[in-house]
Design goal:
The chain has 779 residues and is an alpha/beta fold. 44% of the residues lie in helices and 11% in strands. A five-stranded parallel beta sheet has the order 5-2-8-10-9, with helices on both faces. It has a five-stranded antiparallel beta sheet with strand order 12-16-15-14-13, with no helix packed on it. α3 crosses α5, α5 packs across α6 and α29 crosses α30. The two termini are 48 Å apart.
């Protein structure tokens, strides 16, 4: 009360007016009232000698400093907003405070006033759908991505159609033309901002269609990140409910059968905002190791987070020097809204990151057109260090989308005719090579075609591994080249190269025929009704016993990779460091003449002794080259392949996994693949996305919890689900379930099971979309 006696009302207002700015709106009223009461005096609302002071204080502190009327209302348990409404005062409570989200009613009213229609982007523009003159043009090397067409672009049906958009001015300065819309339609005068800096005069003006033809003829392509969305206006930040375009499919040549794609770089045309949309929808593409950020500062900042995810997933980051890796470049935005950069700054950045390297690719293709040696990703992937080879040992190039050659049974039958087919004496219920050699546990077998028709070339391409209905395979196995044939009653083999003696026993060990499969199928079927249906549809799926060294290096190469590229990597690996075994006749799809394919043994540790990381990168192994060298070095000091063979006698699959993950580039999944497919660790469970789906769909929906990544704890938890359900050779049972998830086996599964799998997949996608929306709303 002493303070109340000595502090005047005016001084109190000064103190409280300064302090209230730092107090939240609701606490403000309570604090003011408490202070007034503790000081032992009340503020008179209508005091004439304080009215002017109160007015100044209220104006200065608004909206955080309420009027005296509001303070009095707070004491009476009436809200400030209500009190001000009753007294006719202007409500500060209706003003949006910093950090305050709009109410549901506000959003509803706003949506009611503005009806936003969904808009769709253009089709991708490249020479294949822009120019139809029958001439030859280069493969697409650079894909330029906007975010989504503006209102102006959509109304004019032109990409980058706004007259102030810088894209066509930049492209014209780089390629050699001038945009026709470089004058204001209102004043008839040139846009001063661009006009003073353009390199070409009015004599070089081209219309939109001509500009488009000029740029795509150089190997550039243009598209948008967002396929369709809701958006009020033209700003990227207003995009809602978007769906991405099939950009990855375009770059990989699978979209609309576009095979002329050899994309080396993706250019984000709308700066960091466009980059955020790209990362949002294509994070997995980065994590797969197929994309890398360009080296410039802007790109490094834009993709820093997603590249850190790539490093965490793979142990390293991809580089544009790695064959098949696409560089992603973030450049200053071309939109009129991107006013942070001057036109000259934009031009310098675009010529350095987009048009400069793209035109170099075009010039390279043009200069080598007669020799047809344009450096496509397919050729990059099979390039190996130059060394002396017999002219007869030719390895033809192949495409990841369509086989470049055919191996015909009629041609293979002419090899080693002195060696007849030998029966392995195994029933189809015990072994089906069509289900065992094609499920991803090995990479050394090639399909031999039995049909002579031209259509046969596409028959074994239902999936990356091949098809379940192929009947014959050829491949190197140890020091032999063998042909394996599946018949309705048994499995046959024939030696094409190497010793014939002991081959039957060798294959019996390779296919692990000492383990009866039929009793296992029956035991697993009792434990899982779903597996029972799969067992009836896909018999004879066995686990192989491969050479540990070959299996280990093969699965290091498989990390974040696809089967065609794994096969090419290992083919180059064998040819460079293995021993030549034989040539086999092939029929080329590019020409009607016959050719030959050289087959090599898998390298030994001794043959890899002088291999360097640079050599392996040049072969197309990319960041995996470092892992191969690191694993080789540790193996040499650990006892070589003998160390791996000794792990077969270890009965603890977890202990074996712990030993294997010590090697460079080997995580838990790769370790379990090596353990299961080469070290007789029958309870090892390699966990990937397919296995996660099986576990959460069929056994325990909560197994993954709320984790966003596969932690060691969750990895073990998923594996334990299989081990507890299938105590006898859980890894074998898991592999049978895995095979059923592969696209090439869908046609043999019961229709109700296929429908169930599709419905669950759709449900998962909907759940993920729902979670994204909830997260977006919370943000």
């Amino acid at each position: 009360m002493i303070v109340g006696r000595i502090v005047s009302p005016s001084l109190f207002l000064l103190i409280s007016g300064s302090c209230f700015r730092f107090i939240s709106h609701r606490k403000l009223l309570w604090s003011a009232t408490a202070f007034q009461i503790s000081c032992g005096f009340a503020i008179r609302n209508r005091s004439s000698n304080m009215s002017s002071s109160l007015g100044r204080t209220r104006r200065r502190a608004s909206p955080y400093f309420p009027s005296p009327v509001a303070s009095s209302a707070a004491v009476s348990n009436i809200s400030a907003e209500t009190a001000q409404k009753e007294t006719g005062a202007k409500s500060n409570g209706k003003r949006k405070l910093k950090g305050q989200k709009p109410s549901a009613s506000t959003k509803k009213n706003k949506q009611a006033k503005v009806k936003v229609e969904r808009t769709k982007s253009f089709e991708p523009k490249w020479w294949g759908n822009v120019i139809n003159d029958g001439s030859e043009y280069p493969p697409v090397h650079t894909l330029i991505l906007g975010t989504h067409p503006s209102i102006t672009s959509l109304s004019k049906n032109e990409m980058y159609g706004h007259p102030l958009n810088a894209f066509w001015y930049l492209a014209g300065d780089a390629i050699g033309f001038r945009r026709s819309a470089s004058v204001s339609p209102k004043t008839g005068k040139p846009y001063v901002y661009y006009h003073d800096h353009l390199r070409y005069d009015d004599g070089h003006i081209l219309e939109y269609s001509q500009q488009l033809e000029r740029i795509v003829a150089k190997g550039f392509a243009m598209w948008d990140i967002v396929a369709e969305c809701e958006r009020e206006g033209s700003l990227d930040q207003n995009i809602l409910e978007e769906k991405p375009n099939q950009i990855r499919e375009f770059c990989e040549g699978t979209l609309n059968n576009i095979k002329e794609s050899a994309v080396k770089r993706i250019v984000i045309a709308n700066g960091t905002t466009g980059s955020k949309f790209f990362v949002k929808h294509f994070t997995e593409w980065f994590v797969d190791g197929r994309l890398c950020a360009a080296s410039d500062d802007m790109s490094q900042r834009a993709f820093k987070t997603v590249m850190n995810k790539q490093r965490k997933a793979n142990g390293d980051i991809a580089s544009k020097e790695d064959n098949g890796v696409i560089e992603v470049v973030c450049l200053p935005g071309v939109s009129p809204a991107a006013a942070k950069f001057t036109y000259l700054e934009k031009r310098a950045a675009w010529e350095a990151g987009c048009f400069g390297p793209g035109l170099k690719d075009f010039e390279k293709w043009q200069s080598n057109k007669q020799q047809s040696t344009f450096d496509t990703p397919e050729k990059q992937q099979i390039t190996t260090p130059k060394r002396e080879r017999s002219p007869a040992r030719k390895t033809p190039a192949s495409s990841p989308k369509e086989p470049a050659f055919r191996i015909l049974s009629s041609s293979i039958s002419k090899l080693a005719q002195e060696n007849e087919w030998i029966d392995l004496d195994v029933s189809p219920q015990e072994l089906r090579p069509s289900s065992t050699l094609t499920n991803g546990q090995c990479f050394n077998w090639m399909v031999v075609e039995t049909e002579e028709s031209p259509d046969a070339i596409n028959s074994p391409r239902q999936s990356a591994w091949g098809t379940h209905d192929a009947q014959e395979w050829i491949g190197p196995l140890g020091d032999r080249v063998l042909s394996i044939k599946e018949t309705p009653t048994t499995t046959l083999f024939r030696v094409l190269h190497g010793p014939t003696e002991g081959t039957k026993e060798y294959l019996q060990q390779y296919f692990r025929l000492e383990t009866p499969l039929t009793p296992l199928y029956e035991e697993w079927s009792k434990a899982d009704t779903r597996l029972k249906k799969i067992a009836a549809a896909i018999p004879g799926v066995r686990i192989l016993r491969q050479a540990p060294l070959e299996c280990m290096f093969s699965f290091i190469c498989s990390s974040n990779n696809n089967i065609p590229r794994i096969t090419k990597m290992l083919s180059s690996f064998r040819e460079t460091y293995g021993s030549f075994m034989m040539d086999i006749p092939i029929s080329s799809s590019a020409a009607n003449d016959d050719d030959s394919l050289s087959i090599f043994s898998f390298p030994t540790l001794d043959s890899l002794a002088n291999a360097s990381e640079g050599d392996l990168r040049a072969m197309g192994l990319g960041y995996r080259a470092k892992f191969i060298i690191g694993t080789r070095d540790l193996l040499q000091t650990s006892g070589g392949e003998e160390f791996l063979l000794n792990l077969r006698s270890n009965d603890d699959c977890q202990a074996v996994q712990d030993e294997l993950i010590k090697f460079s580039g080997i995580g838990r999944k790769v370790a379990d693949c090596v353990a299961l497919f080469s070290l007789d660790q029958d309870d090892s469970i390699p966990v990937d996305i397919h296995v996660q789906h099986i576990a959460s769909r069929d056994y325990d929906p909560t197994v993954l919890g709320q984790a966003k990544s596969l932690t060691p704890t969750i990895y073990k938890r998923v594996g334990d689900l299989f081990r507890s359900r299938f105590p006898n050779r859980a890894g074998w049972a898991h592999s049978l379930l895995f095979v059923a998830e592969l696209p090439s086996f869908r046609s043999v599964l019961p229709l109700d099971m296929v429908k169930e799998m599709d419905e669950w997949k759709k449900h998962e996608q909907e759940q993920k979309a729902k979670q994204k929306m909830e997260k977006k709303k919370e943000g």
